[in-house]
Amino acid sequence: MNDxxxxxxxxxxxxxxxxxKWLAKMGVSLMxxxxxxxxxxxxxxxxxxxxxxxxxxxEQYLVxxxxxxxxxxxxxxxxxxxxxxxxxxxxxxxxELADAxxxxxxxxxxxxxxxxVGRFFGPDVSAESSDEKLLEIAPDFxxxxxxxx
Length: 149
Description:
Layout: H1 11-26, E1 33-39, E2 46-56, E3 59-63, H2 70-78, E4 80-85, E5 88-96, H3 103-121, H4 131-137, E6 143-148
Antiparallel strand pairs: 1-2, 1-4, 2-3, 3-6, 4-5, 5-6
């Protein structure tokens, strides 16, 4: 199992993430970036973070490259949220995928964004990894299918 908790955010990570979040607030998307807004499971207040929205086989997905984070826990309770880009907001509902359904999503996600998030998946995981390897890491990386509307 990949222990992603041992990869601390670097100063560069914090600057990059803040920049991407600010750009999304201003209406600029970098390769599909959106601002994810989800109600906090304890406070009910909106919580936001920048995410990469993946379109795979005609459906939209969110992959959690840092694992079972706060936004993932909030999403599980809220069952959806908003995708924001500038002033535009799209509400969605979310369903978490079973581990068996994740390899194809992981493969495309890593093809598009390995330069940004690949290190969280581990040095021996890439878009070319076998289905067996992707299934092995699947429990560590939640994936949600979105229904926008």
